[in-house]
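Box S2. Input/output pair 1.
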Amino acid sequence: MRKRTLISSAIAVTAAGAITIAGTVVAQAQETGDEALAAAIDAILTDKRLTDSQVGVTVADANTGEVLYERNGAKRAIPGSNDKLTTTAAALEQLGGDFKYTTEVLGDRPTDGVVAGDLYLRGSGDPTLLEADYDRMAEDLADRGISTIDGDLVADDTAFDSVRSGTEWGWSDLQFTYAAEVSALTVASGDDYNAGSVRVFIKPGAAEGDPAQLSMAPANDYVEIVNSATTGTTTSVSVNRDPHDNVIRVSGTVKLGTNGTYATRSVIEPTQLAADVFADSLADAGITVNGDLRFGETTPQGPETLASHQSRTLTDLTAVILKPSNASVAEALFKTLGYEATGTGTFASGKAATYAGIEPYGVDTGPIRQVDGSGISRHNMMTSNMLADLLVGAKKADWFGTWYDSLPIACKDGTLASRMCGTPAAENVRAKTGSMTSVSALSGYVTDADGRELVFSVIVNDFLYSTVKDIEDKIAAAIAAHTTAATEAETLRSANVDDIEMPAEDPNHSLECTWVEPAVC
């Protein structure tokens, strides 16, 4: 606790917080205002879980940029999903909130219901396409009287390059949605828009010992499921995709009389899954494709657009990314930035476009490194100072309202839905979380008890306990409780930090809470 004493001679501090000199009790003056806030944060950071860990913290005035507190603010660290802050800010700056993805079906003008040549399915990067969207495009073709494709169905995903995974994505992560392969033509498993994945539903049979009943969304013939799961008295299911092929193995038990459970797994080569789904959609619409499926070819000049689908606006998709920390949409957006800037969607062109989008808002990209759009890579390096600069600078952007409204709100929604409840930060803090093994981050906005709007960024690396998120919450709550008149002790007491308990060890704490299935927030 930082205190300013009034006496410089030999003193002793009493348990009550006063000092004694030769038997005389003299009141001890405690710092207030920003110094008290700094002392409160320092006290929170004495948590033994942070011993030998790397901690970067910056707190600043949201309107002036004046730094109120900094610890290791210029030191680079892995930001986790705080990476999505730069991706979405750059996208709103470079593409605009009205931006939409367009997916097209192209071919020669039909004659007597027949498309004479190949039919092209051309993607532009839309990560939110669902099975129902492919069904509608097929139905639109049928409504035009098309009944036969005399050539092949060609899946054009060439808006993005063929590098499907980012630098240093963990091998053990690749079957999960947050590390799904990136393609310009894909399909999502549900309306939470986990692109390039399938969702496996596991339901009990009619009696104990019966095989579990499985189904997939989207329905397809591209992924094979091997089922050894049975109906039992408890639900304990293992769902794993083979490392080198699209075989998903389901084992364990699902409890009799329940609705069962589900698990979502990414696929290898999502373009081929999308083409398989669309081929089924065409068949369901009564359209026969006489040829084969082909992949990765550019649509030639000449064919006309026969059907198309547009995504939701980028304004809508920003919340889809930030509130649940959707990685596959963020990665598609990263490559889309590169595609719109250069004509080629790559991780490298996405990085350049992202930097160009945030630099006008006072962000120095020299000391940082961003290699993907979602923060999955451990090659990403950011600083709490840099993220605070972005948070301050973004307030000057015409897209700020969209970005701010898309951030998770403490004790209300997104990845903060169950955090900071019962503190002054509840429904006050708007911030982006970050979660990986030994990586945790929280950066965003908070209004203190005097009504002053502040920004903060906390990045913690190299801790051994499963989570330090309660420490982040205490810092955010202390900032929310801060007043110019409060001492350190009063700030901590007003913040209710004692009510924010250290969570038990939990292997799921290395994940964003929305990535756990079913979600735990």
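Box S3. Input/output pair 2.
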Amino acid sequence: MENIYLLMLVALVVLAIADLVVGVSNDAVNFLNSAIGSKAISFKTIMIVASLGIFIGAVFSSGMMEVARKGIFMPGQFYFDEIMIIFMAVMITDILLLDFFNTLGMPTSTTVSIVFELLGAAVVMALIKVSASDSETLANLSSYINTEKATEIISGIFLSVIIAFTIGALVQWLSRLVFSFEYEKKIKNFGALFGGVCLTAIGYFIFFKGLKGTPYYDSFKDVLSSQVVWVVGVSLVFWTLFSWLFMKIFKRSILIIVIAIGTFGLALAFSGNDLVNFIGVPMAAYHSYEAWAASGQAASAFSMEVLKDEVPAEPILLFISGGIMVLTLWFSKKARSVAETEIGLSRQGHGTEKFDPNMLSRAVVAGSTKLADGLRYILPMGTKRRINKSFEKPEEILVGDKAEEQPAFDMIRAAINLTVAGVLISIATSYKLPLSTTYVTFMVAMGTSLADKAWGRESAVYRVAGVLNVIGGWFFTAFSAFAAAGILTYIIFLGKGPAIAILLLLAIGLLVRNYISHKNKAIAKADKSGLKKSESKTVQGIISESADNISNVVSRSNKIFSDVFTGLSKQDKKKLKKSKKGVAKLEAEIEDLRDHIFFFIKSLDETSVRGSSFYITILGYLTDIAQSLEYISKKSFKHVNNNHKPLRYNQITDLKEIDDTLSDLLTQIDRIFTEKKFEDISAIVASRDEILNSISEKIEKQVSRTRTEESSPKNTTLYFNLLLETKDLMNAIMNLMQEYNSSYKKV
């Protein structure tokens, strides 16, 4: 029987390594986003600074936080075999939950995950013990759970969300009021003081929070706690002088140093204190196994009172953990997906919105707009002018052609993000208030975005929806962590070794599946074969540039159309579903081009108006093509998915003729635009009436069949819909060709 616990311990070690990987992939956003979003320093430098912070914090960390051993449950109430079940359930749940959020690109809290997993597993194990006892009832459940500490942790975590958002918004608003968006001018005068304040706050945060738990912390913790005013005062003078000298000597902005040191500080604190979220449970399991093996008692009789004692972490394990975390930071693609979510939500300029608006986000934006209008109404006119002048954005932020390549926000906001997050975490630590570093850093970033008016009328509903989705995900994290860990605890209790083996195999399978899914999405995102935005200013240039887009759309339309009719004739639901996805992707790319129209027109000079008219017209025809394909694919999939009768043989034959005709036509168009032989378009336009008349004849034939022999209303309706929509598709294609033909001849 002893072997099973040794195998469980080995499994927990492997799970700890996997948890380090998925945990860093999630929490990397805490310290990377401000530097990446502002592009104050190169990406390679950011990674080196963050890596140093992570490794130093991990190596000098105590590696243990009491939450993993006695912060949530009373260890003395459980026996060794029960505690090992709890730990196994927690680790499996933690990996799957964090990997799920990483795959979605959503930041969540590793602290909240581990807390609620431990709580859920401990509660279920306690319920099992209570139900098996003749003397205990549900009222005795409180003797198993450390309710006071658990409540303190949970309330502290969620209270930090509101505080972080509010303080972040207030500090950013005041900073922007002072510096405005043209901060380069004012930073020369006030930069030394601003840098001194930020570096003092970040420096205090590094010593108080980042190095808490290191062997050196005891030597200065009394000074930090009892001589706060002196420490802060001396630091402020030193860092202000340092900032002034740096700016004078190197002629560079002190904000670069603030962002670099702030990134280092948050990375240091993350690894030094959040390391427990990844290795705390396996470490506790190891010490439990060690104590039980030395006791000589049965696993079901050895009380885990030993977990109440302080246990130092082994330096070699901390060294290995730091190395794994650094490697993950450099090579994890999922870490960058999670980072993109927060940067996208806080982006100052225009960019692709990841989230769709919902009823709640619309209500929040509408209410906030009315409140802002009311406040503006009561403010004096002079005050409003002063505020509006400070918040005037440079022209390039508003109309930049390459918004995605610009910094998501400026260095002032990046510095405030890092400083405020560091200060809030330091204050909470000094009062021994637990919080989630992910929640604090994310909500500070969202608060500063709001204050910076990054959430304008153009993007507010999308950004607010994104924030609400992330916060909703946090509550889902808590609920699912509690429920999943509890369920797995019960399954392992019933199934013992076989149940653990099955769950581990299932976990591996899900991790592999999520990895493949994320990899495929990354490949699709990196695919450069999609539609490209036009950069030309003249009709001739747009004709030549957009030829690749037309060829792309025509080629994909040809495949989608053929696949739909093939899937319909063979009742192949999988092929029809794939066609629907292909149409959705095509529509999204065309919509992205339409969203670019504003920037395209703003970039034109007065002599290029005809070029913009041509560009808008062809985008309209491309939209018509995509909409017709969407209707055809949707109706066909719905028919097969609802298990209606297949189309009759003569209907399929007619559709095949249309498919062949259209395929030949689209192949010719594809060749013309690929080779840019626009003089051949005239022949395509000349065949318009012949093709449309052919479709009309098939409609008339179906009318005759319906009157005499057709017996299926669903088939008849589908067939007419397909023919009519194909006719609209042909009209859109021919209109597009006519526009190109006439514009080409005028050039």
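Caption for Box S3: The first helix runs from residue 2 to 27. DSSP finds 27 helices and no strands in the chain.
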